[in-house]
Amino acid sequence: MKCPKCLGSMDTINFNDVEVDRCEKCHGLFFDHLEKETLRSMEGAESIDIGDEFVGARFNEILDVACPKCQTKMEHVLHTDPVEIKFECCPSCKGIYFDAGEFRDYLEDEIYQQFQEVIDQL
Ligand SMILES: [Zn+2]
Ligand SMILES: [Zn+2]
Questions:
Q1: How far is the CA of 65 from the centre of ligand 1 (A)?
Q2: Ligand 1 geometric centre to CA of 60 (Å)
Q3: Ligand whose nearest atom lies closest to the CA of 69
Q4: Closest-approaching ligand to the CA atom of 72
Q5: Which residues constitute the domain of residue 98?
Q6: What is the pLDDT of residues 42-97, one digit of tens each?
Q7: Residue 1: inside a domain, yes or no?
Q8: 10: CA distance to ligand 1 center in Å?
Q9: Cis peptide before 68 (omega within 30 of 0)
Q10: In the prediction, which pLDDT does 41 show?
Q11: 10 Å Cβ neighbour count for 1?
Q12: Can you count the helices (H) and strands (E) in the chain?
């Protein structure tokens, strides 16, 4: 699978039986289908988000991306209240892409609950 942002190749990694694809170049993360239940088993998963948030921020400006799995144009999901949560979601297969550093941020205590709710609404 190719990274939708930088076209680097993505490696499949496994965290608590959840499969995640990580780009070896920009370190963006792609989840097949991230559900609230899946998130619960992701405690400690900050460790899989090894990328540099500054690199992630740069790639975050690329808005026109195709889902790496089914090639559908991904939608930009943005929630700003009370904290900013943003990522790309595929309307077809429900795959979710995070730029480097984004996923790590959303696992922080203050944001985690809101993140779960956003995921739940997809
Ligand atoms: Zn990449
Ligand atoms: Zn897709």
A1: 11
A2: 11
A3: 2
A4: 2
A5: 10-121
A6: 889 999 999 998 888 888 888 789 999 999 999 999 999 888 999 999 999 999 99
A7: no
A8: 7
A9: no
A10: 85
A11: 12
A12: 4, 6
